Amino acid sequence: MVAWTDFERATIKDIFSKIDYEVVGPAAISRFLIVYPWTQRYFAGFGNLYNAAVVMQGLEKVVKNMDNIKATFTELSTLHSEKLQVDPDNFMSCSFDCLAIVVAAQLGKDFTPEVHAAFQKFLAVVVSSLRRQYY
């Protein structure tokens, strides 16, 4: 279980209330697939990943259930580890770094070092949850 400070909890909720999903979702996925082209093989059957609703739906669910992120991602973790056999290093070093860059660009000066640290902690917890089935 993750210990969230009041600041972290409020910051994560604030970030997700401010970002424009129609911009962030497709921009993060586009950046991810362009910067890390080898990851495209994992998404061949997913259809249009540039649809913000598809991309951001999972993260919205997590923000609503921050106290039990691992349970929220159990099914997705199993899918990634057993069926898709995704390299778990892709989670943080690729996909969530791209998301952090896009969110930072959208929030601009509001993405302070303290906000960045809270967001990175949130992403690290999500990554840990996705990696759970690998070990």
TrEMBL record:
Keywords: Heme, Iron, Metal-binding, Oxygen transport, Transport. One of its GO terms (biological process) is hydrogen peroxide catabolic process. Residues 3-135 form the Globin domain. It comes from the Eukaryota. Gene3D superfamilies: Globins. Pfam families: Globin. GO terms for cellular component: blood microparticle; haptoglobin-hemoglobin complex; hemoglobin complex. InterPro entries: Globin, Globin-like_sf, Globin/Proto, Hemoglobin_oxygen_transport. GO terms for molecular function: haptoglobin binding; heme binding; metal ion binding; organic acid binding; oxygen binding; oxygen carrier activity; peroxidase activity. The keyword Metal-binding applies. Belongs to the globin family. PANTHER family: HEMOGLOBIN FAMILY MEMBER, HEMOGLOBIN SUBUNIT EPSILON. This is Globin domain-containing protein.
